[in-house]
Amino acid sequence: MLLAVLLSSLSGQVERTGPELAAYGNVCGPRHDQLCLEPVRNAGFPIAYLFDAPGISRERNVAIVEDEFRPFAFCLNVAVYLVALLVILAAFKAAARMKRQQVGASGSTPTDDRP
């Protein structure tokens, strides 16, 4: 579980832009009285859990301290990584079990070359 949380936290280094839009100003449009909507910078993989907050933080930079953190999306990331780690662990256990069965079926035992 701790490893899944760590992997999810490290996935915050994966940043991308969009598809969510946010207002980065209010002097757009033909009369310069409309919001300037642009794609938001976000971080987290496979599910983004950290979103840039325009006007509050440095624009187009994501930081846990000053931007919008979405705990539910972070928990979903942890769940995805936990499932992936459990699948990998089960595959390793199955491979080890098959190897033991093959050694037992051949009737040979591993040799020890120590004097």
Plain-language structure description:
The chain has 115 residues and is of the alpha+beta class. The chain has a domain at 2-15 and 43-105. 39% of the residues lie in helices and 17% in strands. It is built from 2 helices and 4 strands; from the N terminus they run αββββα. It has helices spanning 2-10, 71-106, and strands at residues 15-23, 37-43, 50-51, 68-69. The protein has a 4-stranded antiparallel beta sheet, with no helix packed on it. It starts with a helix and ends in a 9-residue tail after the last helix. The mean pLDDT is 85.
Weakly predicted, low-confidence segments: none
The largest beta-sheet arranges its strands as 1-2-3-4
Helix/strand/pairing class, anyone?
A: alpha+beta
How much of the residues is beta strand, in percent? Answer: 15-25%
Q: Main sheet?
A: 4 strands, antiparallel
DSSP helix count?
Answer: 2
Order of helices and strands: HEEEEH
* Fraction of helical residues: 25-40%
Distance between the termini: 44 Å
Give the CA-based shape.
Answer: rod-shaped
Instruction: Give the rounded overall mean pLDDT.
Output: 85
How many β strands by DSSP?
A: 4
Radius of gyration over all CA atoms, rounded: 25 Å
